[in-house]
Amino acid sequence: MAGPGWGPPRLDGFILTERLGSGTYATVYKAYAKKDTREVVAIKCVAKKSLNKASVENLLTEIEILKGIRHPHIVQLKDFQWDSDNIYLIMEFCAGGDLSRFIHTRRILPERVARVFMQQLASALQFLHERNISHLDLKPQNILLSSLEKPHLKLADFGFAQHMSPWDEKHVLRGSPLYMAPEMVCQRQYDARVDLWSVGVILYEALFGQPPFASRSFTELEEKIRSNRVIEDFFAHPWVDLEHMPSGESLARATALVVQAVKKDQDGDAAAALSLYCQALDFFVPALHYEMDAQRKEAIKAKVGQYVSRAEELKAIVSSSNRALLRQGTSARDLLREMARDKPRLLAALEVASAATAKEEEAGGEQAALDLYQHGLGELLVLLAAEPPGRRRELLHTEVQNLMARAEYLKEQVKMRESRWAAETLDKEGLSESVRSSCTLQ
Ligand code: ADP
Ligand code: MG
């Protein structure tokens, strides 16, 4: 008898070992064949007394369907047996566990992995549907992985599977609510296409870590499926970039940013002014797309041309003062290095800071430099806290402040580079080549 405390059931010809998982009726064990092959298998055990008439039907259908098919992405049923207590399905062993565990130990899957899995699942489903078989209980728990090193999906648990031709309509609810198609949940009338809905839910779960309509009750689920609540992530996605969509407001927003830029420029804050001009450009591009009147379009272009020239000048100012700062920082660091000969940890941290500075001077090295600065800063802050008062402490303090300023500056740079696309689009609008570089400081 299977049961807690009783260990796995006995089955002639096999040694049953660890429990692999369990579902509604069955418990699945890993097992070895006693024959000299010592083949490893998975044995799904169903206690006969847990079965009612409907579930006997299901089990028989599962055996009948699996016996008749062979597909690289469908778990293979090797044999079945029974005794007075249980029915046993002897299956190919899938060492990688099930997809639910696979997703949740990784939190989410990268798109390229999810795509390969989708291809494998699709090929298994196409094979089944060509044979008029619907699975009807597709969910991550019922999809197994051949191994963890080289995972291949194996569709399993055909306990709810049905022979269904494309025009068959069914009414019996089966499957797991979270993965069930809405016509099944809400109308109790469905056909073979419901499997495809479940595939969509599985894909979503693979990419986002949880199913789209996660709910605690059937009513809550039905409400969620029926509601036209927006999926916020989509609207906020940087690729969709709704904020910069050409609209009647684009011009006003661009102009407001220019006003701020001019103010900063007057105050002598070149870096802030440049950043604001670049943000303004991000709105001028859509404003130009939105403007239909040729004359007004030309007027905007002329204005933008002027801002671009000023941005160019600011860029020159910012990068020369940046170079000066960089030089100052480097010589201050050299001095500190002299005073840190007996402190290997401090020397190492200063090395990281120098590596960051070197990276900063490479084209496109901003992000790498930023990471290095942040790493170096972490170390230096710890050292600063332990440093006794004195000249070295003062220098260390200045070094920390310099590095923070560098990191801030680079963050700004990375942000501005992201808005370069705007300048590239402006080019297509007939503006000068210089626009392209006005938002980056290399
Ligand atoms: P149920 O019909 O009770 O849901 P399943 O066939 O889905 O039973 O099996 C339950 C769990 O056992 C699966 O979710 C999976 O974790 C594990 N399992 C099932 N079959 C295998 C197998 N062939 N290899 C490895 N693990 C398996
Ligand atoms: Mg199952």
Strand content: 5-15%
- Helical residue percent? 40-55%
Shape: elongated
CATH architecture descriptor of the largest domain: Up-down Bundle
Ligand types: adenosine-5'-diphosphate, magnesium ion
Tally of DSSP β-strands: 9
Mean pLDDT: 87
CATH superfamily of the largest domain: Phosphotransferase system, lactose/cellobiose-type IIA subunit
Cα-to-Cα separation, first versus last residue: 74 Å
| Number of discrete domains | 3
What would your notes on this structure say?
The longest helix has 45 residues, at 294-338. The termini are far apart. Helix 8 (250-267) runs antiparallel to helix 9. Mean pLDDT is 87; it is low at 1-5 and 432-437. The chain is elongated. The chain is an alpha+beta fold. The protein has helices at 53-67, 99-106, 111-130, 182-187, 194-208, 218-226, 232-236, 250-267, 270-290, 294-338, 344-361, 366-386, 391-418, 420-428, 434-437; strands at residues 14-22, 26-33, 40-47, 77-82, 86-92, 133-134, 143-145, 153-155, 162-163. The protein is built from 15 helices and 9 strands. The protein has 3 domains: 14-92, Phosphorylase Kinase, domain 1, CATH 3.30.200.20; 99-242, Transferase(Phosphotransferase), domain 1 (Orthogonal Bundle), CATH 1.10.510; 246-439, Methane Monooxygenase Hydroxylase, Chain G, domain 1 (Up-down Bundle). The strands form 3 sheets. The chain has a 5-stranded antiparallel beta sheet, covered by helices on one side. Strands 6-9 form a two-stranded antiparallel sheet. A hairpin with a 3-residue loop joins strand 1 (14-22) and strand 2. The structure holds adenosine-5'-diphosphate and magnesium ion. Magnesium ion binds next to loops. Adenosine-5'-diphosphate (ADP) binds at residues 20-26, 28, 42, 44, 75, 91-94, 97-98, 141-142, 144, 156-157, 159.
